[in-house]
Every structure is written in C-alpha cells, then in structure tokens.
Amino acid sequence: MNTVPTHELAISITRLSKSYGEFNVLKSISLHVRRGEKVVLCGPSGSGKSTLIRCVNRLEKHDSGDIRVDGIELTDDVRHIRMVRADVGMVFQHFNLFPHMTVLENCTLAPVSVRGLKRKEAEARATEMLERVRVTGHAHKYPSQLSGGQQQRVAIARALCMSPTIMLLDEPTSALDPEMVREVLETLTLLVQDGMTMLCVTHEMGFAKAVADRILFMDQGEIVEDNAPADFFAQPKTDRAKKFLNQMIHK
C-alpha cells in the first residue's frame, strides 16, 4: 500500500494491466515514483518493461488500472495526454530523430510547436542542451552524419529541450555498438545529478548500480522485486532475480 503523500509523487500507477490478444503483458502493476527519484526497471526480455514505460506517456494504452503523472490521470482525454507529454521526456532505443532535419531542427521543433517558444529562444536552449550532452559542433549536421552514440546524445538533448520534469528511458544503449555505450551512459550519469525524476529500462547493471535509488525487477508481466541497489546486487530476494543477475554477470 502506498503511504507517500500525493504531492510527493511524480508517477503513480495502480493495478495497471495490459494485454495483446491472449497475452497478458502487464498484470496488475502498482508502482509509485517520488519526485527526484531514479528508478531502474530490469528483467528478462519480454517481461513487460518497455510496455510499462510506454504506458506512462500513453504511447501504449492500458486496459485497466490507473496512471497519474504529476497528478494528471492518463485516460482518453487528449488534453491530459498532451499535458503529460509536454512535461515528460522520452528517449527511445532507436533514437527516433527526424532524418530530414538537422540536429538543431530536431531539437527546436517541439519547443516551438508545443511550448510556443520563439525560434531564437528555442535555438539558444537547444545549443545549451547540445553542449550539455557534449555534441557541440554538430548542430547543423543531419542524423545520418553522426555516430550512433552521437545520435542518442542528440535524442537526449532533444528531450531536455522541453524542460521535462520526468525522463523516461527505454533501453537507451541497446542499439549502440559496445564502444558507444559508455559515452551515452556517462551523459545519463551527469543528468541524474541534477535531481530530475528518471524511470529507466536498461540491461546495463553497472549504470543501474551507480545511479538508481531503487531497482525494480520484472518477470512475466509483474514486478517481483523492489529493492535498493546495494541489496539487489548483494542479496536479491527472489530466485528469478538471482538467476537473471547470474546470467548478466556471466555474459
């Protein structure tokens, strides 16, 4: 049972369920994330992690249960969906940059069209965020001219240009070559130091151990363990988590 005061919650999920046909991908999930908290979701492929995170900004429509982001309930109400998406940044596995736009254009599109910023103001904000994720000098390039690691850092900068209060990250390094993973994880590690609320799906256990306040282990559509990082890695509570960690260590 959640005892956290409502005003302290960035994300509140209660009895959330989602199915694709006969397959129950999420089974009555309840999860509460405090403002400023960094929560990592991990678990085997197909356990429902990405579906859960995509439900938080309505990229997936849940079947039953309740999702509230900054107190706004996510239903079919388009106004509520827009309000949530305006304040929640999302970083995907495959960057999702617009290939026909330059880096700068990718970063200014939403602030101008959604936030109503003037172009000069949006460009100044974009330049600041590109510097923050260390891709200065690439503003006028197209995504195809960048490495995978650079593209993902641009995607992070694009999300930050909306001044989000919450960041959702869905396997942000899974599409990268191993040598590019480190640069993206270093960027994300810097971000968490700013006090932003973060919900991140990842298999990068070193990153999870370093930045998470809590680690949630999912399996077969359920959260089967909710633990502090030190305890999760030293003494996982469940056999399923132990097996998962053993497999990750011996990859």
UniProtKB/TrEMBL annotation:
InterPro entries (alphabetical): AAA+_ATPase, ABC_ATPase_HisP-typ, ABC_transporter-like_ATP-bd, ABC_transporter-like_CS, MetN_ABC_transporter-like, P-loop_NTPase
Gene3D superfamilies (UniProt xref): P-loop containing nucleotide triphosphate hydrolases
Superkingdom of the source species: Bacteria
Keywords per UniProt: ATP-binding, Cell inner membrane, Cell membrane, Membrane, Nucleotide-binding, Transport
Ranges where the ABC transporter domain occurs: 11-245
The family this protein is said to belong to: Belongs to the ABC transporter superfamily.
Name of the molecule in the record: ABC-type polar amino acid transport system ATPase subunit
Organism: Caballeronia udeis
